[in-house]
Amino acid sequence: MADTTQSHSTPSGTLFKRWNPGAWGVIALILALVAIFAPDTLVETVSFTLKALAGTAPFIAFAVLAVAFLKASGAETLLARAFEGNPARMIVMAALLGGLSPFCSCEVIPFIAALLAVGAPLGAVMAFWLASPLMDPAMFAITSGTLGFDFALAKTVAAVSLGMFGGFGVMLMANTAIFANPLREAPATSSCCSSAKPFSGAPVWQFWKESDRRVTFADTARSNALFLTKWLTLAYLIEALMLRYVPADLIASFLGGTGIMPILLGALVGAPAYLNGYAAVPLIDALLAQGMSNGAAMSFVIAGGVSCIPAAIAVWALVKPRVFAAYLGFALTGAIVAGLVWQAIA
Protein backbone atom coordinates (compact mmCIF):
# COMPACT_ATOMS: atom_id res chain seq x y z
CA MET A 1 0.00 0.00 0.00
CA ALA A 2 2.31 2.70 -1.15
CA ASP A 3 1.83 6.28 -2.14
CA THR A 4 3.60 6.68 -5.46
CA THR A 5 3.86 8.71 -8.62
CA GLN A 6 6.18 8.67 -11.60
CA SER A 7 7.59 11.62 -13.50
CA HIS A 8 9.57 12.01 -16.70
CA SER A 9 12.88 13.86 -17.03
CA THR A 10 11.36 17.18 -18.05
CA PRO A 11 11.71 20.62 -16.42
CA SER A 12 8.11 20.49 -15.22
CA GLY A 13 8.56 16.97 -13.89
CA THR A 14 11.77 18.01 -12.09
CA LEU A 15 10.03 21.04 -10.61
CA PHE A 16 7.15 18.90 -9.36
CA LYS A 17 9.55 16.36 -7.89
CA ARG A 18 11.39 19.10 -6.02
CA TRP A 19 8.21 20.75 -4.73
CA ASN A 20 5.99 17.69 -4.17
CA PRO A 21 4.82 18.16 -0.56
CA GLY A 22 3.25 14.74 -0.06
CA ALA A 23 0.04 14.06 1.83
CA TRP A 24 1.23 15.61 5.10
CA GLY A 25 2.35 18.75 3.26
CA VAL A 26 -1.05 19.09 1.60
CA ILE A 27 -2.76 18.63 4.98
CA ALA A 28 -0.62 21.40 6.48
CA LEU A 29 -1.29 23.65 3.48
CA ILE A 30 -5.07 23.15 3.72
CA LEU A 31 -5.07 23.91 7.44
CA ALA A 32 -2.96 27.01 6.87
CA LEU A 33 -5.37 28.26 4.20
CA VAL A 34 -8.35 27.62 6.48
CA ALA A 35 -6.58 29.50 9.30
CA ILE A 36 -5.94 32.47 7.00
CA PHE A 37 -9.22 32.72 5.10
CA ALA A 38 -11.74 31.15 7.51
CA PRO A 39 -10.17 31.16 10.99
CA ASP A 40 -13.53 30.84 12.72
CA THR A 41 -13.99 27.36 11.13
CA LEU A 42 -10.50 25.99 11.88
CA VAL A 43 -11.36 24.37 15.21
CA GLU A 44 -14.52 22.83 13.80
CA THR A 45 -12.65 21.47 10.75
CA VAL A 46 -9.89 19.93 12.86
CA SER A 47 -12.45 18.52 15.30
CA PHE A 48 -14.43 16.89 12.47
CA THR A 49 -11.25 15.32 11.08
CA LEU A 50 -10.08 13.96 14.43
CA LYS A 51 -13.52 12.56 15.32
CA ALA A 52 -13.75 10.83 11.94
CA LEU A 53 -10.28 9.33 12.43
CA ALA A 54 -11.21 8.16 15.92
CA GLY A 55 -14.34 6.49 14.58
CA THR A 56 -12.32 4.68 11.92
CA ALA A 57 -9.42 3.76 14.25
CA PRO A 58 -10.64 0.21 15.07
CA PHE A 59 -10.91 -0.59 11.37
CA ILE A 60 -7.48 0.92 10.70
CA ALA A 61 -5.98 -1.20 13.49
CA PHE A 62 -7.60 -4.38 12.16
CA ALA A 63 -6.45 -3.61 8.61
CA VAL A 64 -2.87 -2.88 9.68
CA LEU A 65 -2.56 -6.05 11.77
CA ALA A 66 -4.21 -8.25 9.13
CA VAL A 67 -1.91 -7.10 6.33
CA ALA A 68 1.17 -7.36 8.56
CA PHE A 69 0.21 -10.93 9.48
CA LEU A 70 -0.26 -11.91 5.82
CA LYS A 71 3.12 -10.43 4.92
CA ALA A 72 5.03 -11.90 7.85
CA SER A 73 3.55 -15.38 7.44
CA GLY A 74 4.24 -15.39 3.70
CA ALA A 75 0.61 -16.15 2.89
CA GLU A 76 0.89 -14.06 -0.28
CA THR A 77 2.81 -16.95 -1.86
CA LEU A 78 -0.53 -18.73 -2.15
CA LEU A 79 -1.30 -16.33 -5.03
CA ALA A 80 0.93 -18.32 -7.33
CA ARG A 81 -1.52 -21.22 -7.23
CA ALA A 82 -4.09 -19.09 -9.07
CA PHE A 83 -1.94 -19.31 -12.19
CA GLU A 84 -1.79 -23.08 -12.47
CA GLY A 85 -4.08 -25.48 -14.33
CA ASN A 86 -7.05 -24.93 -16.64
CA PRO A 87 -7.14 -21.38 -18.18
CA ALA A 88 -10.76 -20.75 -17.14
CA ARG A 89 -10.02 -21.90 -13.61
CA MET A 90 -6.94 -19.67 -13.57
CA ILE A 91 -9.04 -16.64 -14.46
CA VAL A 92 -11.59 -17.31 -11.73
CA MET A 93 -8.92 -17.92 -9.10
CA ALA A 94 -6.88 -14.91 -10.20
CA ALA A 95 -9.94 -12.66 -9.93
CA LEU A 96 -10.80 -14.04 -6.48
CA LEU A 97 -7.28 -13.69 -5.14
CA GLY A 98 -6.83 -10.30 -6.78
CA GLY A 99 -9.88 -9.02 -4.97
CA LEU A 100 -8.82 -10.49 -1.62
CA SER A 101 -5.03 -10.21 -1.61
CA PRO A 102 -3.12 -7.62 0.46
CA PHE A 103 -1.00 -6.46 -2.49
CA CYS A 104 -1.07 -2.80 -3.43
CA SER A 105 -0.94 -1.90 -7.11
CA CYS A 106 2.79 -1.26 -7.27
CA GLU A 107 3.71 -4.41 -5.33
CA VAL A 108 2.20 -6.63 -8.02
CA ILE A 109 4.58 -5.30 -10.71
CA PRO A 110 7.48 -7.73 -10.05
CA PHE A 111 5.04 -10.56 -9.32
CA ILE A 112 3.13 -10.07 -12.57
CA ALA A 113 6.30 -9.45 -14.56
CA ALA A 114 7.66 -12.81 -13.43
CA LEU A 115 4.41 -14.59 -14.32
CA LEU A 116 4.31 -13.01 -17.78
CA ALA A 117 7.96 -13.89 -18.33
CA VAL A 118 7.28 -17.59 -17.71
CA GLY A 119 4.24 -17.61 -19.97
CA ALA A 120 1.26 -17.23 -17.62
CA PRO A 121 -1.90 -16.58 -19.69
CA LEU A 122 -2.65 -12.90 -20.17
CA GLY A 123 -6.31 -13.53 -19.34
CA ALA A 124 -5.47 -14.65 -15.80
CA VAL A 125 -3.03 -11.79 -15.40
CA MET A 126 -5.66 -9.30 -16.57
CA ALA A 127 -8.17 -10.73 -14.10
CA PHE A 128 -5.72 -10.24 -11.26
CA TRP A 129 -4.76 -6.76 -12.44
CA LEU A 130 -8.35 -5.53 -12.60
CA ALA A 131 -9.43 -6.95 -9.25
CA SER A 132 -6.30 -6.25 -7.22
CA PRO A 133 -6.49 -2.43 -6.81
CA LEU A 134 -10.19 -2.49 -5.94
CA MET A 135 -10.31 -4.47 -2.73
CA ASP A 136 -8.08 -6.00 -0.07
CA PRO A 137 -8.56 -6.80 3.62
CA ALA A 138 -7.58 -3.30 4.73
CA MET A 139 -9.83 -1.57 2.21
CA PHE A 140 -12.76 -3.83 3.10
CA ALA A 141 -12.42 -2.88 6.76
CA ILE A 142 -12.21 0.86 6.02
CA THR A 143 -15.08 0.74 3.52
CA SER A 144 -17.28 -1.32 5.81
CA GLY A 145 -16.68 1.02 8.71
CA THR A 146 -17.52 4.16 6.73
CA LEU A 147 -19.96 3.20 3.97
CA GLY A 148 -21.44 0.08 5.53
CA PHE A 149 -20.92 -3.65 5.22
CA ASP A 150 -23.36 -3.93 2.29
CA PHE A 151 -21.40 -1.44 0.17
CA ALA A 152 -18.08 -3.09 1.04
CA LEU A 153 -19.45 -6.52 0.14
CA ALA A 154 -20.97 -5.21 -3.10
CA LYS A 155 -17.65 -3.60 -4.06
CA THR A 156 -15.85 -6.88 -3.37
CA VAL A 157 -18.29 -8.76 -5.62
CA ALA A 158 -17.86 -6.07 -8.28
CA ALA A 159 -14.06 -6.35 -8.06
CA VAL A 160 -14.09 -10.11 -8.55
CA SER A 161 -16.71 -9.87 -11.31
CA LEU A 162 -14.71 -7.19 -13.11
CA GLY A 163 -11.62 -9.38 -12.93
CA MET A 164 -13.47 -12.32 -14.46
CA PHE A 165 -15.04 -10.05 -17.11
CA GLY A 166 -11.64 -8.80 -18.20
CA GLY A 167 -9.97 -12.19 -17.92
CA PHE A 168 -12.52 -14.05 -20.01
CA GLY A 169 -12.66 -11.13 -22.44
CA VAL A 170 -8.93 -11.45 -23.02
CA MET A 171 -9.21 -15.23 -23.34
CA LEU A 172 -11.90 -14.90 -26.02
CA MET A 173 -9.88 -12.30 -27.94
CA ALA A 174 -6.46 -13.86 -27.36
CA ASN A 175 -5.88 -14.43 -31.08
CA THR A 176 -6.76 -10.88 -32.15
CA ALA A 177 -4.28 -8.10 -32.93
CA ILE A 178 -5.08 -6.36 -29.64
CA PHE A 179 -3.52 -9.06 -27.48
CA ALA A 180 -0.91 -10.45 -29.85
CA ASN A 181 2.61 -10.02 -28.45
CA PRO A 182 1.34 -7.92 -25.51
CA LEU A 183 4.55 -7.27 -23.56
CA ARG A 184 6.90 -4.33 -23.87
CA GLU A 185 10.43 -5.09 -25.00
CA ALA A 186 11.89 -4.70 -21.50
CA PRO A 187 9.19 -4.89 -18.86
CA ALA A 188 9.87 -3.06 -15.62
CA THR A 189 10.37 -5.39 -12.70
CA SER A 190 11.15 -3.06 -9.82
CA SER A 191 8.58 -2.19 -7.21
CA CYS A 192 7.86 1.33 -6.06
CA CYS A 193 6.86 0.02 -2.65
CA SER A 194 9.24 0.01 0.26
CA SER A 195 7.93 -3.21 1.77
CA ALA A 196 10.19 -6.14 2.47
CA LYS A 197 10.85 -8.82 -0.12
CA PRO A 198 8.06 -11.44 -0.01
CA PHE A 199 8.87 -14.77 1.63
CA SER A 200 8.92 -17.82 -0.59
CA GLY A 201 7.76 -21.34 0.07
CA ALA A 202 4.88 -22.50 2.25
CA PRO A 203 3.35 -19.96 4.65
CA VAL A 204 4.62 -19.97 8.23
CA TRP A 205 1.56 -19.12 10.31
CA GLN A 206 3.50 -18.93 13.60
CA PHE A 207 5.74 -16.23 12.14
CA TRP A 208 6.76 -14.83 15.55
CA LYS A 209 9.17 -17.74 16.02
CA GLU A 210 11.49 -16.31 13.33
CA SER A 211 13.27 -13.00 13.83
CA ASP A 212 13.20 -11.89 10.19
CA ARG A 213 9.44 -12.46 10.03
CA ARG A 214 8.94 -10.49 13.25
CA VAL A 215 10.86 -7.63 11.66
CA THR A 216 8.69 -7.88 8.54
CA PHE A 217 5.54 -7.80 10.70
CA ALA A 218 6.71 -4.69 12.56
CA ASP A 219 7.90 -2.87 9.42
CA THR A 220 4.72 -3.68 7.49
CA ALA A 221 2.46 -2.64 10.37
CA ARG A 222 4.32 0.63 10.84
CA SER A 223 4.42 1.58 7.15
CA ASN A 224 0.76 0.73 6.58
CA ALA A 225 -0.36 2.53 9.73
CA LEU A 226 1.39 5.68 8.52
CA PHE A 227 0.00 5.23 5.01
CA LEU A 228 -3.60 4.80 6.13
CA THR A 229 -3.39 7.58 8.71
CA LYS A 230 -2.03 10.21 6.36
CA TRP A 231 -4.41 9.47 3.50
CA LEU A 232 -7.48 9.18 5.72
CA THR A 233 -6.53 12.40 7.52
CA LEU A 234 -6.34 14.18 4.18
CA ALA A 235 -9.60 12.59 3.02
CA TYR A 236 -11.52 13.50 6.18
CA LEU A 237 -10.15 17.03 6.01
CA ILE A 238 -11.38 17.37 2.42
CA GLU A 239 -14.69 15.83 3.46
CA ALA A 240 -15.13 18.49 6.14
CA LEU A 241 -14.49 21.25 3.58
CA MET A 242 -16.81 19.64 1.02
CA LEU A 243 -19.66 19.41 3.50
CA ARG A 244 -19.18 23.09 4.38
CA TYR A 245 -18.51 24.70 1.02
CA VAL A 246 -19.86 22.45 -1.80
CA PRO A 247 -23.62 22.93 -2.21
CA ALA A 248 -25.53 19.68 -1.83
CA ASP A 249 -27.90 20.60 -4.64
CA LEU A 250 -24.93 20.95 -7.01
CA ILE A 251 -23.80 17.38 -6.29
CA ALA A 252 -27.37 16.11 -6.52
CA SER A 253 -27.93 17.82 -9.86
CA PHE A 254 -24.94 16.10 -11.48
CA LEU A 255 -24.59 12.78 -9.65
CA GLY A 256 -28.03 12.28 -8.12
CA GLY A 257 -31.11 10.57 -9.46
CA THR A 258 -31.80 7.09 -10.71
CA GLY A 259 -31.00 7.30 -14.41
CA ILE A 260 -27.93 6.05 -16.22
CA MET A 261 -26.36 9.51 -16.66
CA PRO A 262 -25.19 9.89 -13.01
CA ILE A 263 -23.61 6.44 -13.23
CA LEU A 264 -21.79 7.34 -16.45
CA LEU A 265 -20.61 10.61 -14.93
CA GLY A 266 -19.49 8.77 -11.79
CA ALA A 267 -17.28 6.47 -13.86
CA LEU A 268 -15.91 9.27 -16.04
CA VAL A 269 -15.22 11.56 -13.08
CA GLY A 270 -13.84 8.76 -10.93
CA ALA A 271 -11.20 7.75 -13.47
CA PRO A 272 -9.14 10.99 -13.36
CA ALA A 273 -10.20 12.30 -9.92
CA TYR A 274 -9.28 9.31 -7.74
CA LEU A 275 -6.71 9.77 -4.96
CA ASN A 276 -6.53 6.16 -3.81
CA GLY A 277 -8.94 3.55 -2.51
CA TYR A 278 -8.61 4.61 1.10
CA ALA A 279 -8.87 8.35 0.62
CA ALA A 280 -11.86 7.87 -1.66
CA VAL A 281 -14.02 6.25 1.03
CA PRO A 282 -14.65 9.38 3.15
CA LEU A 283 -15.10 11.47 0.01
CA ILE A 284 -17.78 9.09 -1.26
CA ASP A 285 -19.40 9.28 2.17
CA ALA A 286 -19.59 13.07 1.85
CA LEU A 287 -20.88 12.91 -1.72
CA LEU A 288 -23.59 10.44 -0.76
CA ALA A 289 -24.65 12.76 2.07
CA GLN A 290 -24.94 15.58 -0.49
CA GLY A 291 -27.11 13.66 -2.92
CA MET A 292 -24.83 11.41 -4.98
CA SER A 293 -26.74 8.35 -6.18
CA ASN A 294 -25.75 4.87 -5.00
CA GLY A 295 -25.02 3.75 -8.54
CA ALA A 296 -22.77 6.74 -9.22
CA ALA A 297 -20.88 6.04 -5.99
CA MET A 298 -20.20 2.46 -7.05
CA SER A 299 -19.16 3.38 -10.61
CA PHE A 300 -16.89 6.10 -9.16
CA VAL A 301 -14.97 3.75 -6.85
CA ILE A 302 -14.66 0.98 -9.44
CA ALA A 303 -13.49 3.16 -12.35
CA GLY A 304 -11.28 5.28 -10.12
CA GLY A 305 -9.70 2.35 -8.33
CA VAL A 306 -8.60 0.64 -11.54
CA SER A 307 -7.41 3.81 -13.26
CA CYS A 308 -5.67 5.54 -10.33
CA ILE A 309 -1.98 6.32 -10.86
CA PRO A 310 -0.38 3.33 -9.06
CA ALA A 311 -2.73 0.82 -10.69
CA ALA A 312 -2.33 2.35 -14.13
CA ILE A 313 1.47 2.48 -13.82
CA ALA A 314 1.56 -1.19 -12.85
CA VAL A 315 -0.08 -2.09 -16.16
CA TRP A 316 1.58 0.54 -18.36
CA ALA A 317 5.04 -0.54 -17.17
CA LEU A 318 4.63 -4.07 -18.51
CA VAL A 319 2.35 -4.13 -21.56
CA LYS A 320 1.96 -2.29 -24.85
CA PRO A 321 -0.44 0.68 -25.19
CA ARG A 322 -3.16 -1.34 -26.95
CA VAL A 323 -3.33 -3.78 -24.04
CA PHE A 324 -3.35 -0.86 -21.62
CA ALA A 325 -6.27 0.66 -23.56
CA ALA A 326 -8.13 -2.65 -23.29
CA TYR A 327 -7.47 -2.63 -19.53
CA LEU A 328 -9.08 0.82 -19.24
CA GLY A 329 -11.95 -0.25 -21.49
CA PHE A 330 -12.72 -3.25 -19.30
CA ALA A 331 -12.54 -1.01 -16.22
CA LEU A 332 -14.96 1.64 -17.49
CA THR A 333 -17.43 -0.93 -18.85
CA GLY A 334 -17.34 -2.93 -15.64
CA ALA A 335 -17.71 0.20 -13.51
CA ILE A 336 -20.84 1.27 -15.37
CA VAL A 337 -22.38 -2.20 -15.12
CA ALA A 338 -21.53 -2.37 -11.40
CA GLY A 339 -23.12 1.03 -10.89
CA LEU A 340 -26.31 0.00 -12.68
CA VAL A 341 -26.60 -3.23 -10.70
CA TRP A 342 -25.91 -1.52 -7.35
CA GLN A 343 -28.39 1.23 -8.18
CA ALA A 344 -31.07 -1.39 -8.81
CA ILE A 345 -30.26 -3.30 -5.61
CA ALA A 346 -29.67 -0.37 -3.28
Secondary-structure element order, N to C: HHHHHHHHHHHHHHH
The averaged pLDDT comes out at 79
Number of helices: 15
Radius of gyration: 20 Å
Main β-sheet description: none
Low-confidence stretches: 1-17, 187-195
Number of strands: 0
Helical percentage: over 70%
Helix vs. strand class: mainly alpha
Question: How large a portion of the residues is in β-strands, by DSSP E?
Answer: under 5%
Whole-Å distance between the termini? 30 Å
Q: What overall geometry do the principal axes of the alpha carbons give?
A: globular
| Number of separate structural domains | 1
Membrane topology: Multi-pass membrane protein
Protein name: Permease
Family: Belongs to the UPF0718 family.
Keywords: Cell membrane, Membrane, Transmembrane, Transmembrane helix
Give a structural overview.
The chain crosses the membrane at residues 21-38, 50-70, 109-131, 152-174, 250-275, 295-319, 326-345. With 346 residues, the chain is mainly alpha-helical. It has one domain. The chain contains 15 helices and no strands. It starts with 10 loop residues before the first helix and ends with a helix. Residues 1-17 and 187-195 have low confidence and may be disordered.
What's the layout of helices and strands?
Layout: H1 11-19, H2 22-37, H3 42-73, H4 87-100, H5 108-117, H6 122-131, H7 137-147, H8 149-172, H9 211-245, H10 248-255, H11 260-273, H12 277-289, H13 294-307, H14 309-316, H15 321-345
Helix pairs in contact: 2-9, 3-7, 3-9, 4-6, 4-8, 6-8, 7-8, 7-12, 8-15, 9-12, 11-13, 11-15, 12-13, 13-15
